[in-house]
Amino acid sequence: EQAESLSQSIQSQHRELSLLTRDRRTIQSTVRLQEELGEAIARFAGSLGMAGSDPFAQEREGEALARSLKSLEDGIRSDWKAFDNADSSATGAKAALTFCHQYLRDARHDKIPDSRTLTRAIQRHGELESELQRVEVELETAHADWNELFGHINQIIGETSKVRATLEHELAAAREAAEKLRLATSSIRDLHSWRSSYSVSINRRAGNKKLHQAKQALALGRYGEARQAAISAQGESLREYQRARSAESSAASAAIAA
Questions:
Q1: C-alpha dihedral (245, 251, 252, 253), degrees to nearest 10
Q2: Among 16, 76, 93, 198, which residue's beta carbon has the most beta carbons within 10 A?
Q3: Structural contact between residues 177 and 223, judged by C-beta atoms closer than 8 angstroms
Q4: What number is the average pLDDT over the span 3-12?
């Protein structure tokens, strides 16, 4: 009689849990466990009252099934929480990828050639967006493995963080190289436009070679090399400009003294 009462109780619990496992958030492995438990409970109910059966053994079996149902219920709640975590992480991943769009716009419109590293980062960003789109489709699939998706989404978030750092670094390096090139060009322009009233000679080629190297490096997206060459070009032209102006001042002073 006690085993019969226990059997009715676990059958009722199983029916309730069966409704919960129909929820799309329940992972497929948990659904299979519910089905297997249903079969075990049916066998247990069918064995009650059979001649020669051990009521104590049947009671222990019934209690074990009851514990399994408790575990199943915990698993269902865990699955739903896993879905919430995956869904929330997907939202975070999408926000992180969207944030990078401002860097992609800068790269398209700054009129500075992209470095190889920057090009790879832009390509990787596109790949990650495609990966996330596939994940979002899977999130709409009933009974998927949310824990596996959660891990995949976290990988996307980690990769996105690396892409963002690369975009920030490369774009900053590109802007700095372009600015150094502008300053070098301005310095050489000053050198070329300078005129002497006292026949002071000036090397108007000072810095030209380095400026040419800087332009070539920037055109190839080699920002560090372009920056260094531009700094050298500015330094060479500025030193020659200052030397000429100093010589001009000395010549003027000598003319006045004479």
A1: 110
A2: 93
A3: yes
A4: 88
- What's the pTM value of the predicted model, to 2 decimals? 0.84
In sequence order, the 6+-apart residues with CB closer than 8 A to the CB of 58 are 3, 44, 47, 48
Q: In the chain, which residue ranges form alpha helices assigned H by DSSP?
A: 2-21, 28-47, 55-99, 101-109, 116-139, 146-193, 208-219, 223-257
Give the closest residue to 35 by CA, choosing from 132, 117, 143: 143
Give tens-digit pLDDT for 156-169: 999 999 999 999 99
Helix (H, G, I), strand (E, B) or coil at 202: coil
Rounded to whole angstroms, the Cα distance separating 40 from 67 reads 13
Instruction: Provide the 10 A C-beta neighbour count for residue 87.
Output: 17
